[in-house]
Amino acid sequence: MKLSPRDAPGYFARPDPSRTGLLIYGADAMRVALKRQEVIAALIGPQGEEEMRLTRIPGGELRKDPAMLLDAIKAQGFFPGPRVAFVEDATDVLAPIVTDALADWREGDAQVIVTAGQLKAASKLRKLFETHTNAYAAAIYDDPPSRAEIEATLAKSGLSNVGTDAMRDLMTLAQELDPGDFRQTVEKLSLYKLNDEDPVSSDDIAICAPASSEAELDDVLNIVAEARSGEIGPIMKRLKAQGVQPVGLCIAATRHFRTLYAAASDPGGAGQGIARVRPPVFGKRRDRMLRQAQNWGADRLQQALTLLTETDLQLRSAGQTAPAMALVERALIRLAMMARR
Questions:
Q1: Whole-angstrom Cα distance, residue 120 to residue 123?
Q2: Which residue of 249, 274, 318, 323 has the lowest C-beta tally within 10 Å?
Q3: 96 with 44, same domain?
Q4: Would you report the helix, strand and coil content of the chain in percent, each value rounded to 5?
Q5: Contact 220, 239 (CB under 8 A)
């Protein structure tokens, strides 16, 4: 039987132990693995693997020894409780073996959990589970998690007190990160908020979220965007000493001002625009960039992007003879002066 995308999350959280088995398949191996972990943990509990009630069978090994699956289904362990026979990375080559195992399954046997990559509609393995009267097949798509799934992830990590702005930031972050990274971020957040009764805030998420690749350049970009031209020289010397490359600095500045332009030019206003930018910005950094976008306005930001594009072309020009870092510093000073108009 097919599990619809709407019903699948509920079943993964509370699987039926009387079912023969479940096939989980999809193009994203990480998403499939996370769902498989959730289902198995719900079936056998946190101590199930330690009590040897889980048998892992790699697809390659099952192909060499077809009897492994049926043996795992019928085997009786020393500890009472539900058992699972897990077949990993299955393909259609294993369809006859799995078919025979499901046919011999009886109540009380280990439930069969099978994971696979992307399967076509004509896949024998997929058809086996979709047409079985006591087994399920669930497709895992690359869609970002829903609010309900995010709330379930937070609840498992012990985070129940989440502010409205923080939840909005988490939903945005979930769209940008792959499922494994998002779960790690939530776990990091739960540790950060351990014994802290205050609600989770946007600032908390900004601290725990994966660092931006241009985070080390934020200081100079904020100085430029806030028209503090007198501070550019000293920080440029520090960046040069740290080995920051002129082209990389120009690219980072372009990204920063492109984000400001996207916010300032949004039809719904800069506040709505900054919430839509990708990659997302959080907490105090978002508030700061929102003020910058409002102060600049879309027209001047468009002029700033033109200046940065011209500077980038100069840096990459074969006939360029002027020191590259000096060119970038001059462009940043011009930008800072532009912000004062």
A1: 5
A2: 318
A3: yes
A4: 60, 10, 30
A5: yes
Which residues, including other chains, have CB under 8 Å from residue 199's CB and lie 6 or more apart?
A: 161, 162, 163, 166
Alpha helices in 132-245 (DSSP H): 147-156, 164-176, 179-192, 202-208, 218-225, 232-241
Taken in order 39, 40, 41, 42, is the CA torsion positive or negative?
Answer: positive
Same structural domain for residues 204 and 219? no
User: b or e along 134-154 (b: 16 or more beta carbons within 10 Å of the residue's beta carbon)?
Assistant: ebbbbbbeeebbeeebbbbbb
- Can you name the residues that pair with 58 across neighbouring β-strands? 88
- CA neighbours within 13 Å on the CB side: how many for 317? 14
Q: How far apart are CA 105 and CA 112, in angstroms?
A: 9
Q: Are residues 251 and 323 in the same domain?
A: yes
User: Do 22 and 32 form a contact (C-beta atoms < 8 A)?
Assistant: no
pLDDT at 45: 92
In the prediction, which pLDDT does 341 show? 65
pLDDT, position 215: 46
Q: Where are the alpha helices (DSSP H) in 26-123?
A: 29-44, 59-64, 67-74, 95-103
For residue 181, with 0-12 CB atoms within 10 Å meaning exposed, 13-18 middle and 19 or more buried, which class applies?
middle
User: For the chain, which residues score pLDDT lower than 50?
Assistant: 213-215
| 3-state SS, residue 200 | strand
Residues 34, 85, single domain; the answer is: yes
pLDDT of residue 211: 60
Given this model, what pLDDT does residue 173 score? 83
Q: pTM for the complete prediction? A: 0.60
Give the range of the structural domain holding residue 71, as residue numbers without chain letter: 2-139
Residue with tokens 């024998």: 124
- pLDDT at residue 71, rounded to an integer: 94
